Amino acid sequence: MADVARLAGVSSQTVSRVSNGFPGVTEDTRRQVLAAMRELGYRPNSAARALKRGEFRTLGVITFSLSTMGNIRTLEAIATSAAQHGYAVTLLPVAVPTQDEVNGAFSRLGELAVDAVIVIMEIHLLDAATVSLPPGVQVVVADSDAGDRYTVVDTDQAGGARDAVRHLLDLGHDTVWHLAGPEGSFAAQRRANAWRDTLTAAGRVPPPLVRGDWSAESGYRAGLRLADEPDCTAVFAANDQMALGLLRALHERGLRVPGDISVIGFDDIPESASFLPPLTTIHQDFAEVGRLCVEGVLSKMRQDGEGHGTTLVPTRLVRRESTGVPGRDRRGEESRPPFLPDA
Amino acid sequence: MADVARLAGVSSQTVSRVSNGFPGVTEDTRRQVLAAMRELGYRPNSAARALKRGEFRTLGVITFSLSTMGNIRTLEAIATSAAQHGYAVTLLPVAVPTQDEVNGAFSRLGELAVDAVIVIMEIHLLDAATVSLPPGVQVVVADSDAGDRYTVVDTDQAGGARDAVRHLLDLGHDTVWHLAGPEGSFAAQRRANAWRDTLTAAGRVPPPLVRGDWSAESGYRAGLRLADEPDCTAVFAANDQMALGLLRALHERGLRVPGDISVIGFDDIPESASFLPPLTTIHQDFAEVGRLCVEGVLSKMRQDGEGHGTTLVPTRLVRRESTGVPGRDRRGEESRPPFLPDA
DNA sequence: CCAGTGGATGTTTACGTAAACATTGCCTAG
DNA sequence: CTAGGCAATGTTTACGTAAACATCCACTGG
């Protein structure tokens, strides 16, 4: 900086003013300084800057190895949104979702150049961890509940699940089976609860819950079981991957979708439009979740925020070809090639 | 730090020594300092640290919005591997893959707290950009060629494509059609070139190349065309998503896979094991790519490295049920339900 | 008994920046 | 014509750390 000042014939403070876009600098002087900066290839040293300003302009994101598409989309939106606010994003990967690993990530965080943290994680792993949070570091949590203890931004899981169930009921199905996510997942739990509540509210009897683990493989196994349930005409899968496996199993058993069984997913991953048949599903707006995480954490930083609360991002039903009116009893009536989209 | 020193009854320098694990501190003193650190909740200030040391212990990763699964896996591996070396990872998202955006990312980079950069990007967007790289910032590129100008780590695209084609030829197919990725992509180009070369080397005539854009939707459209090619008994899709769309199109046209047409993909995304039928594909080791990127950039930093070169990460053929011996002429011969896995 | 040695610890300083305060010089109002 | 004010710019200082150097002290060997 001193070199630039010398070359431009000004003081280093003036260089600082120019590089930060502060007022009170003649247009002439500004130009000269900029020229000198270019000539010397000057780059402000961000370490010194952070030291002086007391902030890093950086957000940390803690997440399990980018396993699910939802986390990835959210992360992407966080990065983009942070960049728009002049913030960088530092990744804090947690290899395996154990309490130890999470604690480790949080303690590393203390020495990390980060002003605030966004956690994409189930809440129950967070409790013991946050005690070691450096004071003044704000936290926003995505993919969780517990809005009373943290600021939470999440997809409206319950609303989406409700829409999925209602869609199938509206089509005329007596009831809807549910292929749930793993027990440990709050998202899975909330979707399952909303599924049960919606059925009950509509005066239907919820069938036994079928448990998967988010993977297509687990959906396949569940599908083999469901294929043997003669009463099953409609399945709400807790995510699109499991729906994919489900479709494969039903297909192998010679069941038509949606002719014999309607299937609806959750997430709306890009591939789901190309499943066999294209999957009706609940679209999640991960970009919005990420954006709100950044807004939330920045606003908390500004007002040293105390207020916690949950922001829900609405979902949207995307109707494709895997859902239709009930008709399993018609099985075998027609001889059209199976799985041809009804449309 | 001064407070800790006072509480522990030592000098700040001794605190520094303890916090950096330097030798020359009595076990007694160390314990006292550590106790004081805990009591005061001391965290070393990473800005001051970076300022003093002249390095940030941080790697920047520039990539287009985490669009493809490959990039994500690579990023994940980079983050993990960097953490093991005591480095953090900062994300530099590029919204749209235009030269302007890339230049912007690189110029922001100059002010960013980053010691080195890993670029996950097609090379041709890099050329004009790197001129603005701060001196001393090393670069490693994934997903590209141009090993003569940069250090490059990439999947062995050509080797994988060759294995895919050979697998189908070995099964007895006369030739192999190719559903390629978009023209702008070097990965797509190299896979297509290797496909053509392998066929030529085997004395076969390469059929006309079919172009997609990586999406399942484009694979579907291509599939509708290929279904009308009576000579087509084997297709090598340049990625699994396009293979997915391809499978759907063939299915709609009543063609069995692999009975009538064999399909092989590239990438081995997790879902491909649950396609209809499960997809034979070329597995990419993104974790290894990411790891090598980190190793490469760190070693370049240590030796102020000049040497460029390309490191290729081998692929692996994953045989599932979408490939088999040729048999399109047998169409209609049997009445078994289509798409049941042959095994 | 003393010089010499080496380990443990303290003191000084500089890293690059920006806030706070100081100075300069020009313009305007009285 | 001059005091006062304000815009432009310069000077000083501190941010928290760690390298370099300085000091202290206990112990060893002659």
Model description:
2 copies of one chain form a homodimer. The first copy, chain A, is an alpha/beta fold and 343 residues long. Chain A folds into 3 domains: 2-44, lambda repressor-like DNA-binding domains (434 Repressor (Amino-terminal Domain), Orthogonal Bundle), CATH 1.10.260.40; 56-155 and 287-313, 3-Layer(aba) Sandwich (Rossmann fold); 157-284 and 318-330, Response regulator (Rossmann fold), CATH 3.40.50.2300. Chain A contains 12 helices and 12 strands. Chain A has helices spanning 2-8, 12-19, 27-40, 46-53, 69-84, 99-110, 127-130, 157-170, 186-201, 216-227, 240-252, 286-302, and strands at residues 58-64, 88-94, 116-120, 138-142, 151-155, 177-180, 210-211, 234-237, 262-264, 281-283, 309-313, 316-318. Chain A has a 6-stranded parallel β-sheet with strand order 2-1-3-4-5-11, with helices on both faces. In chain A, strand 8, helix 11 and strand 9 form a beta-alpha-beta unit. The longest helix of chain A is centred in the C-terminal third of the chain and has 17 residues, at 286-302. Chains A and B meet through helix 4, helix 5, strand 2, helix 10 and helix 11 of A and helix 4, helix 5, strand 2, helix 10 and helix 11 of B. Strand 2 of chain A pairs antiparallel with strand 2 (88-94) of chain B, so a sheet runs across the interface. The first copy, chain A, binds a DNA duplex (30 and 30 nucleotides) through residues 1-2, 10-14, 16-17, 19-20, 22, 24-26, 29, 44-45, 47-54. Chains A, B: This is LacI family transcriptional regulator. Chains A, B: Residues 303-343 are annotated as: Disordered. Chains A, B: Keywords: DNA-binding, Transcription, Transcription regulation.
